[in-house]
Amino acid sequence: MTNFDPNHRPVLINETLEFLAPKTGESVLDVTLGLAGHSRAFLEKIGTGGALTGLDADNDNVQTAQENLEEFAENTTFIHTNFERLEELDIGTFDIIFADLGLSSPHLDNPEKGFSIRADGPLDMRFDRTAGPTAADWISSSTEEELADIFYRYGEIRQSRKLAAVLKTDKPKTTFGLNASCEHVFHHKNASFLPQVFQSLRIAVNNELHALEVLLRRGPEILHSGGRIGIISFHSLEDRMVKQTFKALATPEIDDRTGAVSKEAGFELITRKAIKPSEEEVEANQRSRSAILRVLRKK
Predict the structure, then answer these.
(1) Euclidean distance between CA atoms 84 and 240, whole angstroms
(2) Domain count of the chain?
(3) How many angstroms separate the CA atoms of 12 and 79, rounded?
(4) Which of 31, 158, 198, 266 could form a disulfide bond with 83, CB atoms 3.0-4.6 angstroms apart?
(5) Are 52 and 76 in contact (CB under 8 A)?
(6) Does one domain contain both 71 and 188?
(7) Are 97 and 42 in contact (CB under 8 A)?
């Protein structure tokens, strides 16, 4: 039985296909399967001669993806793992590597996973609920200084110290409990800070920026010549890392003494600027509004 929703439209899907340009017979690594919407689009382009390997830290997503892509069973391999382990995996090389760093719909829509601001549930926030501390555990075990630091760094929250102090006192166990603690700091008129609070905790709990560092380091290494890597990010911290890494890889080395090129760049930028969703897409899917796609090609 499939969970595929024909009305579900993956973020920046047209732009992803345009700039990554999957071709018949190519190999694809999707490190963020989610509901497999992007993977399905890739599989339809690469055909029966192609192959797709999909990773996801959430085993529920892996199982859903397998069901949604059942008709492509002979061309797909699924692995329950976080792409933070990419350097440990022996999975070969690829023509396309893709990552959508946003939360998948099941994470936001299922209160039990603890990501939702609008529905009460356990304060979990782990992509992989079989391992590691929950967000509630993380708040309890972190020092006030550590909490303040992650709220300031990952959420750019100016009242980070006050928030950290309140959370250490309250020790919320549910998402609505976290909301209530935040109200003591920001009050109702500043509820716009809630997404940044949830984002900060989620990044810390899942070690997301380290995982992205691994992807940016290992991904280019396992691309075939002519291969492309595309990453969709959703906040400035992620996008800055992607932009700077892609730019560095696409920049030739210059001899300081002569000013001449000493080593040609091994990559080229396919997207010279950030690719953002159209007004029509944002209107249809508010969750896409902050999405940014960047693509790099290996020479």
Answers:
(1) 18
(2) 2
(3) 24
(4) 31
(5) yes
(6) no
(7) no
- Residue 63 within any structural domain of the chain: yes
* Nearest Cα to Cα of residue 227 among 291, 272, 270, 264: 270
Per the CB < 8 A criterion, the answer to whether 170 and 177 are in contact is: yes
| Distance from C-alpha of 173 to C-alpha of 169, rounded to nearest angstrom | 12
Question: Residue 31 in contact with residue 98, Cβ under 8 Å?
Answer: yes
144: CB partners within 8 A, 6+ apart? 161, 164, 165, 168
Domain membership of residue 261 as a residue range: 13-100+209-298
Do 237 and 267 touch, CB atoms closer than 8 A?
no
Domain identity same for 124 and 189: yes
- Is residue 94 one of the residues assigned to a domain? yes
* CB-based contact 103:58 (threshold 8 Å): no
Q: Can you spell out the DSSP letters for 98-162?
A: EEE-SPPHHHHH-GGGS--SSS--BS---SSTTSS--HHHHHHHS-HHHHHHHHHHHH--TTHHH
Q: What is the pLDDT along the chain (299 residues), one digit of tens a residue?
A: 445 555 578 999 999 999 999 999 999 999 999 999 999 999 999 999 999 999 999 999 999 999 999 999 999 999 999 999 999 999 999 999 999 999 888 888 899 999 999 999 999 999 999 989 999 999 999 999 999 999 999 999 989 999 999 999 999 999 999 999 999 898 765 567 899 999 999 999 999 999 999 999 999 999 999 999 999 999 999 999 999 999 999 999 898 889 888 889 999 999 999 999 999 999 999 989 999 999 999 99
Show the tokens assigned to 87.
């350097």
Cα–Cα nearest to 9, from 286, 292, 290: 286
